[in-house]
Design a protein that fits this description.
By secondary structure, the protein is an alpha+beta fold. Helix content is 42%, strand content 15%.
């Protein structure tokens, strides 16, 4: 029998400003948030970043641990989605300010999404 470790996500009241701002301190993570801001859940394989898969995994874990994203595993695939409602409830307006500033300064623009269907 194979056991899959489920990702831990902080509850709303456990999210801290320091953790969230720390997660926003890296351009790759800001780029990932920009991509996820469209509200769609994305498979990790759809994300296009100029880093190794292990580094992408690290960045996604930092975002998840801060409460910015939610990760879901389905079989061998992982999916990630922005926790916009939770962020807006805990820190009203913060996400919009960060996204506006990131777009204005072109932070994270080198991160994208592959629009081709995922490989089986």
């Amino acid at each position: 029998m194979v056991f899959v470790k489920q990702a831990q996500h902080p509850e709303l009241e456990e999210m801290t400003l320091v953790a969230v701002m720390g997660a926003f301190s890296d351009p790759i993570r800001v780029g990932l948030v920009r991509v996820l801001a469209d509200g769609r859940e994305r498979g990790w394989g759809e994300l296009r970043v100029p880093v190794a898969k292990s580094t992408l995994s690290h960045h996604l874990r930092v975002l998840r641990d801060a409460g910015i994203t939610r990760t879901r595993q389905e079989g061998t695939r992982c999916y990630v989605k922005l926790r916009r409602d939770d962020l807006d409830a805990r820190f009203p307006g913060l996400l919009d300010v960060v996204l506006d500033a990131a777009c204005g300064d072109d932070v994270g623009a080198h991160v994208g999404v592959d629009h081709a269907p995922p490989h089986a």
